[in-house]
Automatic annotation (TrEMBL):
The keyword Transcription applies. Residues 8-68 form the HTH iclR-type domain. It comes from Reyranella soli. It comes from the Bacteria. This is Transcriptional regulator. Pfam families: HTH_IclR (PF09339), IclR_C (PF01614).
Amino acid sequence: MTSRRTGVQSFERGLALLRAFGAERTAMTTAEAASAAGLTRAAARRLLMTLQEQGYAQFDGKRYTLTPRVLELGFAWLSAQPLFGVGEPVAKQLAERLNETVSIGTLDIPDVVYLVRALSSRALHLRVGPGTRIPAHTSSMGLILLGSLEPAQLDAFFKQWPRRRYTDRTPVEEGEVRALIEAAGRDGYCYLRGVMEDSIAGLSVPVRDRAKGRAIAALNVSTSLQRTSPEEAFAKLLPEMRAAAQSIEAALR
């Protein structure tokens, strides 16, 4: 007996089409959009025309691009999150004190989603911002958050995690990733270097729901391997990060 569908298929297709746009596909023809979203050309054309009519896309005669109006869809949710309102000023202050890039992210299996990104004057090559998703196992934020999951939830992650290798240091074996997750949960911090970009290191600590004692987000500092050694990160960055995470936790009570 087949399971009964409860979703609206046309809406699902529209969401798939919106998700197909991104940093690697900012402009697409109808055929390219159909291929990226797994749709027929006819379905993609109808959806793209609807997005254009509603002001969410524009067409230059060959390719479609999304318009800034799309931000309404994400930022309406983001601005309503207490974690964003509390975390953004803390992240900006920390980035200014350390002169390093600071981020706050949350888990949406199998990814980490960036909620806050506070840049420093020392720019990094990794282009991410609020709403950016990266595989959780490639991020110190992701490993911290995976370390707070129940065993059944962690098993669910490993059923769908993408084993994509970004650098020679990217962990792609389940045993290795499980060991990193266990260490992050035990130590209360996670340090990774050269996993997403060869020249970048990331250090993360959890932001906890004090009532439930579980991590609801992670606070991250990204730095260049050339200017910050692991020893310097632990001595200089970690105490500041823990204090910042605690201030966010206190404000969320």
